[in-house]
């Protein structure tokens, strides 16, 4: 078993005419949408021809593609794998959009990929490293549509008006939610051209949203895939059929699509969600659905205030100087009631868990680069890093927030 990177090595030699779209292709394209295509792929408001994936290598801003350090090493491997095979190498990209508006609490990005079989894949980016992006995720608890969902519907309609062929729609994390929401609301004519809608560990919808948007019209074409310790994808999960796949890691880190296991040309199926995670997800959903809109709005706004008390603008900064972040967060938590505080602590712990792992990956990559330089100079010895003792885990500090 491997991951999506190994899949590209094994199956990149086949065109889409030789081997139709697979769920692993969808995963790869969803993750490719996280790259920062600003200035390299034409904006949807521009009347310019598409660019090929291979042409990006020669662009002077090529390195800016990997501006999100959470997945930098893996994204480089993904792009390299796509460029090495004819399946994706000549794929065309167009209609890129990237919007971050703190005033409207929205982060939205999408890009369209044109495949060699005459179809197109509309990919919605998931939550990026900005904290305003995470705020919008939680706004989904009481707002519908959130600005990102409204942007998604408009974007899909715009693409469908310019491209007359059949379409795939997909996204990872929040991008999966946007894909399903856009497919539900794009209108009958566009819906008829949708081959498949992919939600890769994307949050679901409140029951009244599914009913109002007539989800049943597209339900048979929705492929929702969750890792077996899913949290994000189980938010508001009730009436959508989903499939569970295996990951090479544990807990919330399974949200990272690069950890999902692949065998042959498909994801490895699991028996179901982990029982402990299922109980926690059900409890969280029951708690959210038990609150009225004002209570939910108060909770989300309070959570945002607590996180922004760290004075960080993104998750990278959030953990880069976690002691400063902790001081602001713990101070803000003192003003919160006990039940809200308990839930907020769990949310912030989750953010730290994800961001700390990303920081570890970044440090590991720098270490590898240093070792390679040492080896190239044929030095016989090097200094080992001393182990630092007495460090406090951010999770432990949050656990002591009451004091």
Topology, please?
Blueprint (H helix, E strand, L loop, with lengths): L3 H8 L11 H10 L18 E2 L19 H13 L7 E10 L4 E9 L5 E5 L6 H9 L7 H16 L4 E6 L1 H12 L2 H4 L2 E7 L6 H6 L9 E6 L15 E3 L16 E2 L2 E2 L7 H16 L2 H16 L6 H6 L1 H12 L4 H39 L17 H6 L4
Parallel strand pairs: 4-5, 5-6, 6-7, 7-8
Antiparallel strand pairs: 1-2, 2-3, 3-4, 9-10
Give an overview of the whole structure.
- This protein is α/β, with parallel strands linked by helices.
- Helices cover 43% and strands 13% of the residues.
- It has helices at 4-11, 23-32, 72-84, 131-139, 147-162, 174-185, 188-191, 207-212, 275-290, 293-308, 315-320, 322-333, 338-376, 394-399; strands at 51-52, 92-101, 106-114, 120-124, 167-172, 194-200, 222-227, 243-245, 262-263, 266-267.
- The strands form two sheets. An eight-stranded mixed sheet has the order 1-2-3-4-5-6-7-8, with helices on both faces. Strands 9-10 form a two-stranded antiparallel sheet.
- It is globular.
How do you describe this structure in short?
With 403 residues, this protein is of the alpha/beta class.
> What integer value in Å does the Rg equal?
21 Å
Number of strands: 10
Query: Approximately what portion of the residues adopt beta-strand conformation?
Result: 5-15%
Number of helices: 14
Classify the secondary structure makeup into a structural class.
alpha/beta
């Amino acid at each position: 078993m491997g991951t999506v990177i190994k899949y590209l090595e094994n199956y990149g030699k086949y065109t889409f005419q030789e081997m139709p779209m697979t769920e692993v292709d969808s995963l790869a394209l969803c993750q490719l949408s996280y790259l920062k295509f600003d200035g390299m792929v034409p904006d949807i408001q521009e009347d310019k021809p598409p660019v090929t994936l291979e042409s990006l290598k020669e662009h002077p801003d090529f390195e800016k593609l990997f501006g999100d350090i959470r997945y930098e090493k893996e994204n480089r491997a993904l792009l390299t794998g796509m460029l090495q095979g004819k399946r994706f190498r000549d794929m065309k990209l167009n209609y890129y959009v990237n919007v971050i508006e703190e005033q409207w609490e929205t982060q939205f990005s999408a890009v369209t990929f044109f495949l060699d079989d005459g179809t197109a894949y509309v990919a919605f980016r998931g939550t990026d490293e900005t904290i305003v992006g995470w705020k919008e995720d939680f706004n989904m608890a009481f707002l519908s549509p959130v600005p990102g969902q409204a942007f998604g519907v408009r974007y899909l309609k715009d693409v469908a008006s310019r491209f007359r062929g059949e379409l795939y729609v997909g996204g990872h994390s929040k991008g999966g939610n946007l894909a399903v929401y856009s497919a539900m609301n794009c209108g009958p004519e566009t819906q008829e051209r949708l081959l498949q809608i992919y939600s890769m560990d994307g949050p679901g919808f409140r029951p009244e949203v599914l009913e109002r948007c007539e989800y049943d019209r597209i339900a048979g074409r929705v492929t929702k895939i969750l890792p077996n310790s899913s949290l994000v994808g189980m938010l508001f999960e009730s009436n959508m059929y989903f499939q569970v796949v295996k990951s090479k890691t544990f807990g919330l880190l399974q949200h990272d699509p690069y950890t999902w296991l692949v065998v042959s040309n498909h994801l490895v199926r699991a028996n179901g969600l982990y029982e402990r995670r299922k109980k926690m997800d059900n409890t969280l959903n029951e708690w959210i659905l038990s609150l009225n809109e004002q209570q939910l709005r108060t909770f989300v706004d309070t959570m945002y205030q607590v996180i922004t008390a760290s004075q960080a603008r993104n998750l990278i900064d959030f953990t880069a100087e976690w002691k400063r972040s902790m001081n602001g967060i713990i101070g803000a938590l003192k003003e919160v009631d006990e039940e809200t505080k308990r839930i907020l602590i769990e949310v912030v712990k989750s953010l730290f868990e994800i961001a700390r792992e990303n920081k570890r990956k970044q440090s590991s990559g720098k270490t590898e680069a240093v070792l390679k330089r040492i080896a190239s100079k044929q030095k016989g010895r090097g200094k080992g890093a001393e182990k630092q003792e007495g460090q406090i885990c951010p999770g432990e500090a949050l656990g002591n927030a009451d004091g």
